[in-house]
UniProtKB/TrEMBL annotation:
GO terms for molecular function: nucleotide binding; oxidoreductase activity. It comes from Microbacterium immunditiarum. InterPro entries: Gfo/Idh/MocA-like_OxRdtase_N (IPR000683), Gfo/Idh/MocA_oxidrdct_glycsds (IPR050463), GFO_IDH_MocA-like_dom (IPR055170), NAD(P)-bd_dom_sf (IPR036291). It comes from the Bacteria. This is Putative dehydrogenase. The keyword Cell wall biogenesis/degradation does not apply.
């Protein structure tokens, strides 16, 4: 049965701009969401856009997009596009997102929202205006949609650990330990905005704010670049590509270590690094409350550790909850209880939540305003680092 057979049922036609690693993950999301969830609209993977005609045509065929194109401006202006999904490097997020919002499209934009606070503000303003016209704008902080992370948020909101007193969050990767790893776009400030701080630190800032329901109100931190020059990357993108002659300067941080104070006054420690030898995608977050604690590890993403301080003393200890029951967020649409999910499922849940928000006329989280909030924290960490790690209050900042 097609959408046309169902009176009143909409078809949402998606254009994805970019087709690297995140493009692959988002393609899986758009493909799987209508197959797994009972969505209130049909989804059509209409067109994928890239600069190289051959490469984008290959990506379209591989991931199941109906068409490919090389000019995002033309695509964003098309009448037959409803959702623009932006998976390009950060230096083009603002221009594409604002153009898409002004053209009447709903927008999904990869994290971090932008490369600067000024860009993020312009994007949040454009999203605010578009919201009045019924458009939705969401940021791709996909880890919020790992069932165990959503469940952690729910448990904290229900008071399962009492008052939050401390947070420990870290995102540790090691793909830059090799000094011969080339100077990819993620290592260039003008393309990526910042390094480990914005790429993976943004995730743990967002996750902390999401699970605790509190904003980061002040930060003090230090960022550092361990390998200052790297081999230039020739043609190609990402980490693949041909070698070129010579070395270029790394203009972003490799490591960011910072302390945050939440609205309530609770302390939070953060570490974002691409130099954690042996750690591949090691995101951990532990929230300690006066009645208990919750801990999540991305490398064991189907579980949540729960400590209940109100249990009898001789039975206390961290309990491993398998977040694979039908009662857990998102899980019932997948497999019978006890069957695990992985990295890609967050992208499926993200597509589902956006489609549902568009049809219901409600804002899926995180909004562009939330993305702007994270951007301000990133900028505050850099400001702190540049000033001997002074405390920078978020509400005291002009931008
Ligand atoms: C690279 O460090 C990266 O791909 C991030 O950009 C993603 O947001 C994260 O999901 C995995 O690591």
């Amino acid at each position: 049965m097609t959408a046309d057979d169902l009176p009143g049922r909409a078809t949402l036609r998606v254009a994805m701009i970019g087709h690297g690693f995140m493009g692959a993950a988002h393609s899986v999301g758009w493909r799987q969401a209508p197959a797994v969830f009972d969505l209130p609209a049909d989804v059509e993977m209409t067109v994928v856009v890239g600069r190289n005609a051959d490469a984008v045509a290959e990506a379209a065929a591989h991931w199941g997009w109906a068409e490919s194109a090389t000019d995002w401006r033309e695509v964003v202006a098309r009448d037959d596009i409803d959702i623009v999904d932006i998976v390009t490097p950060g230096d083009s997020h603002a221009e594409i997102a604002i153009a898409a919002l002004e053209a009447g499209k709903h927008v999904l934009c990869e994290k971090p929202l932008a490369n600067t606070v000024a860009e993020a503000e312009a994007m949040a303003d454009a999203a605010g205006r578009a919201r009045g016209r019924g458009q939705r704008a969401v940021v791709g902080f996909t880890y919020r949609r790992v069932p165990a992370v959503t469940f952690m948020r729910d448990l904290i909101a229900q008071g399962a650990i009492g008052t939050v007193q401390q947070v420990r969050a870290a995102y540790r990767q090691d793909w830059l330990v090799d000094p011969q790893m080339p100077l990819a776009w993620r290592l260039q400030k003008e393309r990526a905005g910042s390094g480990a701080l914005g790429d993976i630190g943004a995730h743990i800032i967002d996750m902390t704010q999401f699970v605790t329901g509190q904003s980061v109100a002040a930060v003090s931190g230090t960022v550092d670049t361990i390998v200052k020059e790297r081999p230039l990357l020739g043609s190609g993108s990402g980490l693949a590509g041909t070698a070129a002659e010579g070395y270029g300067e790394v203009t972003v941080d490799d490591v960011a270590v910072f302390t945050g104070r939440l609205e309530s006054g609770a302390l939070a420690s953060f570490e974002a690094t691409r130099f954690a030898t042996g750690r591949k995608n090691g995101l951990t977050i532990e929230v300690s409350g006066d009645q208990g604690a919750l801990a999540f590890e991305l490398e064991d993403l189907n579980t949540l550790q729960f400590y209940d301080r109100t249990a009898p003393g001789d039975r206390q200890g961290f309990t491993k909850i398998l977040v694979t029951e039908g009662a857990h967020p998102y899980v019932s649409a997948w497999w019978p209880a006890g069957h695990m999910l992985g990295y890609e499922h967050g992208f499926v849940h993200q597509a589902k939540d956006l489609v549902e928000g568009i049809i219901a006329g409600t804002d899926p989280h995180p909004t562009f305003a939330d993305g702007l909030g994270v951007q301000r924290v990133l900028a505050a960490v850099e400001e702190s680092s540049a000033n001997d790690s002074i405390w920078v209050r978020l509400d005291a900042r002009a931008t």
